[in-house]
Amino acid sequence: MTTLEDRTAATPSSVTDEQTATGSTRTVGHGRLRSLRSPRHPRLWFEILLIALSYWLYSLVRNAVPEQKAAALRNADWIWSLEHAVGLAFEETFNQAVNSVTWLIVSMNYYYATLHFVVTIGVLIWLFRRHPGRYAASRLILFATTAVALLGYYLFPLAPPRLMNGGGFIDTVMVHQTWGSMASGNFKHMSNQYAAMPSMHIGWSLWCGLTVFALASAPWARILGLLYPTATLVVIVATANHFWLDAVGGMACLMFGYAVSYAWYGSLPHRLPKRVRPTGGRGRPRFPFRGRRAAVPVSSAAARAASPADPAPARPVPPGSA
């Protein structure tokens, strides 16, 4: 028969087991979160698929934003008036001056059309190969920057300077008949014409430049990293595709991207380890160390069940019985 004392003694054990199980669940949950937030070795097939899918969604959403022509032109007039008010409305003069040098403006048209993608993809490949431990954090900056830019396109439609009514701006792609901006010439119906704020040419180029400057070891590469976004700013203004204030919007989006990455990884990319150990499925090392086995926590009830019963006390041996 089970006495009341036996029942009372057994009760704390079940409560302890329950607390242990709850604690183990919380530990597993925190462990999984830490695993997700820890830098890991990128997988090539996953990254190609992710980048392709992300850019497709970005283009789809960007072009799905209604082309609010009237509002975009009003906003362009407002931006232009604001720049006049602060004494920095230099885009029109600069656009006309550079347009007079044919070889220079044609080169800028091709720069605007190609390097925006080529350099960004090149930096991603360089990170993947040389800095795999910093790749995911840097990629998150780029993705968050691009995502928040979509909000700007929706909330603040803006016509580029070359589409302003009654302005003296020159659409350099149309004038020189060069293959250039997706928003000019034969490609103008494939892209939203009024998504100039913020400038992702500046957002992406500045991401590339800062990444190379922070991680490259060669001095010439670090200098090129700083020159690239500077040259991009010159190009977007000279080709009348953006106001300089659009560049400020691109910088603000990039700051948001850095904040998101820092909040998730707890550090800036250049402070993370350069290389991490490749992992297999479920985050386990692909080549685990041998000779050690991880301790598996068991509940107190299971431990009591697995432990042998207490040995019976030895009986005293009467003298002379041996």
Automatic annotation (TrEMBL):
Chain segments carrying region Disordered: 1-29, 276-322
Q: What is its main location?
A: membrane
Q: Which CDD domains match?
A: PAP2_Aur1_like
Membrane topology term: Multi-pass membrane protein
Membrane-spanning segments = 44-61, 110-128, 140-156, 194-216, 223-241, 247-265
**UniProt keyword annotations, A-Z:** Membrane, Transmembrane, Transmembrane helix
Keyword Transmembrane helix in the entry? The reply is: yes
**What sections of the sequence does the record tag as coiled-coil?**
none
Q: Where is the composition biased (Pro residues)?
A: 310-322
Q: Where is the Inositolphosphotransferase Aur1/Ipt1 domain?
A: 78-259
Polar residues bias: start-end ranges = 10-27
Leader peptide range in chain numbering: none
Q: Where is the composition biased (Low complexity)?
A: 294-309
- Bias-annotated ranges (Basic residues): 276-293
Query: What is the annotated localization of this protein?
Result: Membrane
Q: PANTHER family of this UniProt entry?
A: PA-PHOSPHATASE RELATED-FAMILY PROTEIN DDB_G0268928, PTHR31310
Would you tell me the protein name for this molecule?
Inositolphosphotransferase Aur1/Ipt1 domain-containing protein
Which organism does this sequence originate in?
Answer: Streptomyces clavifer
